[in-house]
Amino acid sequence: MNSFWKNTLSAFLGSGLAMIVFGGLLILVFILSIAGLIASASGEGEDAAKVKDNSILEITFDAAIVDRGKKNDFNFDFGGFGGGGSMGLDDILEDFDKAARDERIKGVYLHLTSVAAAPSTLEDIRKAVVDFRSESGKWVVAYSEQMSQSAYYVASAADEVYVYPEGMLEWKGLFTELAFFSQMLEKLDVDVQVVRGPNNKYKSAVEPFMYEEMSPANREQIETFLNTIWDKMVADVAVSRDLSPETLNMLADSLVSFDAREAAAQRLIDGTKYEDEITAMLKEKSGIAADDDLELVAFSDYRNARVPRSKDSSKDEEEEEAAEEEGDTTSANGKVAVVYAIGAIESGEGDDETIGSDRIAKALREAREDDKVKAVVLRVNSPGGSALASDVIWRETQLIKESGKPFVVSMGDLAASGGYYISCGADKIFANPTTLTGSIGVFGIIPVTGEMFRNKLGITFDEVTTNAHSDVLTTTEPMDEFEMGVMENMITDIYNHFIELVAEGRGMSVADVDSIAQGRVWAGKDALEIGLVDELGDLQDAIKAAAEMAGLPEDCRTKELPEMTDPFEEMLKELASGEATAAALESRIASQFPYLKTLRELEKLSRANGVQARMPFVIEFK
Fold first, then answer.
1. How far is the C-alpha of 299 from the C-alpha of 57, rounded, in Å?
2. Helix (H) or strand (E) segment spanning residue 599
3. What is the pLDDT of residues 204-257, one digit of tens each?
4. What's the pLDDT band for 615 if we cut at 50, 70, 90?
5. What is the C-alpha to C-alpha distance for residues 98 and 106, in angstroms, rounded to an integer?
6. Residues with Cβ < 8 Å from 564, sequence gap 6 or more?
7. Alpha-carbon distance 178 to 202, whole Å?
8. What is d(CA 240, CA 159) in angstroms, rounded to the nearest whole number?
9. What does each C-alpha distance from 195 to 11, 297, 359, 488, 550 come to in angstroms?
10. pLDDT digits (tens, 9 = 90+) for 420-444
11. Which of 356, 391, 355, 416 lies closest to 205, judged by CA?
């Protein structure tokens, strides 16, 4: 966290007023928790969400979507203390499946303005809409006053799509822009020593420190994967809307969709309607009289609803639980462990939003040593990070294979650099067409701030050493030629080790891996063609494949690892440390200054320990 916020909060918490406010918050939290416990006890055996007949599931996606949702017993948004909370992709997919089986749910209302998710996650959600329609036979209606391109990509899978008559629809193509800080660093008298070796020309995480624009290699890789992702989006919309890819690209170029009525005329949507007209339509579709209230169930509430199961399925579950209690570990009662590796990779424990090598290695070890676990799926959503921490995790994946258990990887939005490092030894790798992966390469960054302190602040440094290079890696003076050579050799050795592991895991020659590595990022569809992944598919596809390889039924049970942080304890910890308030402040500032995230990532990058195997830039699709 930025030291400014820490100092500010420390001063605030030191005041008597702050202690009163903080005490009041703790009392409020205590009351809410007690109320939740009472409600939980009094409602035992009943649905947590009251779902009436002829209900409609309303989906807004009004929070950032992450791979794994927070679980709590009180249906209380603990994430809100950190600046708005989040929704779990796992919960979203599970609830679509649940709604398809729920006879009380007549259809789904996609009330979407925007969806805060990367292309691969959008792809998974859109597929869930398609599957919901085909498997349940129920309807899906999408509507908004204005609809972003990400929201439209999901909404286009609905039976009907409408926009407010005076509203707008974004359909314009993808773009991304990178921020470069070399001029700023020059003005500050800050130098950055970059070590990335001769075989990492696409490893462009360091470019914001060096250049004023993209290098030709970086531009080449971004153009390639951006067009691959756009082509996938166009292809999916073309099928749903019965339009040709050529027509969709023409419409994107003309920006015609920004006029809702023209978007309807071009069949991007089914028409324009006011909200009262949508309400009337939904009542008619769900069998509710015009003068009765619409039965809408919020997605956040439906997460805790229970769907009645058949007697046979309940019996099967009871038999499985009884067999497990009796110690039956045969394949018929086996599980697939799903280990979530989410966030940047670093040494140490980590948390639910970072991949700590200790925590993930422990989870993999637990899966390997559990006799009830017959196969392991590693769900990777990471831009990479520490090369050393990646290697620690990679070692545990190899021990799983040596134990005889199938080991499968499912790639989410990102499985790049260190994210690919921990994936490359799998028996089988799944990725979505829009997953960003590869980035096989490493680099090191050593900032030099001596001139800044001297010229801008009037601070000088002097030193005493015992040996010729005792001060190597100091940030006040640049490395000499010999020291730079040592660093370059180390980077080269780590890169060579990386591509050797990939070659071994993928059954390729080192030369072939090197030709597609060099730090280059690939979209999942292209990664399939060059042999970096085995199949295109989502997490469920990976779980099914792992189950089949282990001789388990397709619908076998899963065990999710590592255990998630208790949200109530996490909230109290954040409140006590002031991190929740600081996170909320940073969130507000980030909304006003869009490059704050890039600056924060680069700041973390500049102080990262050791050589980094990390995706080459912070990228957002717009």
1. 6
2. helix 596-606
3. 888 888 899 999 999 999 999 999 999 999 999 999 999 999 999 999 999 999
4. low
5. 12
6. 68, 70, 71, 352
7. 15
8. 9
9. 40, 54, 29, 6, 44
10. 999 999 999 999 999 999 999 988 8
11. 416
Return all residues near 8 (Cβ < 8 A) that are at least 6 apart: none
Count other C-beta atoms under 10 Å from residue 538's C-beta.
22
Evaluate the omega torsion of the peptide bond into residue 562 and state whether it is cis, within 30 degrees of 0: yes
Q: How far apart are CA 90 and CA 430, in angstroms?
A: 17
Contact 425, 397 (CB under 8 A): yes
Can you tell me the distance from the alpha carbon of 514 to that of 520, in angstroms, rounded to the nearest whole number? 10
The CA distance from 300 to 85, in Å, is 12
**Amino acid identity of 95?**
D
From the candidates 410, 417, 423, 439, give the one annotated as an active-site residue. Answer: 417
Buried b or exposed e, range 232-270, using 16+ CB within 10 angstroms = bbbebbbebbebeeeebbebbeeebbebbebbbebebbb
The side-by-side arrangement of strands in the sheet containing 296-298 is: 271-272, 160-169, 139-147, 105-111, 55-59, 296-298
- The pLDDT tens digits for 261-302 are 999 999 999 999 999 999 999 999 999 999 999 999 998 899
Domains along the chain with CATH numbers: 50-176+219-302 (3.90.226.10), 329-444+476-614 (3.90.226.10)
Residue type, 354: T
Of residues 381, 376, 382, the one with CA closest to residue 428: 376
Lookup result for tokens 């954040």: 574
What is the DSSP secondary structure assignment for residue 268, as one 8-state letter?
Answer: S
Q: Catalytic annotation on 203?
A: yes
The string of DSSP codes covering 275-323 is HHHHHHHHHHHHT--TTSPP-EEEHHHHTT------HHHHHHHHHHHHH
Cα 449 from Cα 475, distance rounded (Å) = 6
Distance between terminal CA atoms of the chain? 27
Torsional class of 346: left (φ above 0), alpha (ψ -120 to 50), beta (otherwise): beta
Label residues 466-499 b or e (16+ Cβ within 10 Å = b): eeeeeebebbbeebeeebeeebeebbbebbeebb
- Looking up tokens 């995480």 gives 205
Cβ atoms of 87 and 69 closer than 8 Å: yes
**Distance (Å) of CA 432 to CA 119, 146, 324, 428, 483:** 9, 28, 34, 14, 42
Q: Which helix (H) or strand (E) holds 535?
A: strand 535-536
Amino acid identity, position 123: E
Q: What is the mean pLDDT of residues 495-503?
A: 96
- Write out pLDDT tens, residues 552-609: 998 899 999 999 876 656 655 555 555 555 555 555 445 444 555 555 555 555 555 5
Cα(393)–Cα(401) distance, rounded to whole angstroms?
A: 13
DSSP code of residue 455:
I
**127, 138, 203, 374: the active-site residue:** 203
Strands 436-438, 407-416: pairing is parallel
pTM recorded for the entire structure = 0.82
